[in-house]
Amino acid sequence: MDWSDKLNAQIVQCRQCPRLVAWREEVTRTKKRAYRDWDYWGQAVPSFGDPHARVLIIGLAPGAHGSNRTGRMFTGDSSGQWLYRALHKAGFANQPSWERPDDGLQLTDCYITATCHCAPPGNKPLPMEIANCGGFLREELRRLTRVRVVIALGKIAFDTYCRARGLTPVPAFAHNRSYPGAPVLIASYHPSRQNTNTGKLTAPMWDAVFTQARELL
Questions:
Q1: What H or E segment, with its residue span, contains residue 58?
Q2: Predicted pLDDT of residue 86
Q3: Please, what are the domains in the chain?
Q4: Can you give the pTM of this predicted structure?
Q5: Cβ atoms < 10 Å from Cβ of 137
Q6: 61 near 74, Cβ under 8 Å?
Q7: How far apart are CA 2 and CA 29, in angstroms?
Q8: 3-state secondary structure string, 137-191?
Q9: How far is 41 from 73, CA to CA, in rounded Å?
């Protein structure tokens, strides 16, 4: 068992945020009609990937009927479809899988974590809930000693990472902008339906983020 296994075990057992625990368990009971035959995960979702990675991806939080259902980061919803397709194209994943946690997907040189490990109502974690999860992120930053590129998906993840690293003032967020440092930080829009369905984030814009990450390595 390596450090990530031990930390993920702590993440899964976490019940620090009463509102999030109540919500994730309610969703697990009521389910979505399309997934009524699923046994929902309904717990904090562990991080996923290569514990020796040089690329770290920080998302926002599990989707109620995505990762909260499947138990794997970015698995089971449209955001995962966008992410794993791009990771496979850039050579960080062995296949573009995204629907099930038992599909054989493996990441190479890439590790995925989240600002908040529990599904929040309305996809909006509260500041205190983000702070409660901050200890897990800080431990990952300490343990991921080979990371050279951090990709923050969305402004909340971007701000959370900057604060965890003590970067003040927090720089302005802009899609596919890189911020020098060790590691280099890349900001990206989150591949949520709100962004992809409206054209705020297009496939070429999204792929450019991972092309830049690959080039920086």
A1: strand 55-59
A2: 97
A3: 3-216 (3.40.470.10)
A4: 0.96
A5: 24
A6: no
A7: 33
A8: HHHHHHHCCCCCEEEEECHHHHHHHHHHCCCCCCCCCCCCCEECCCCEEEEECCC
A9: 12
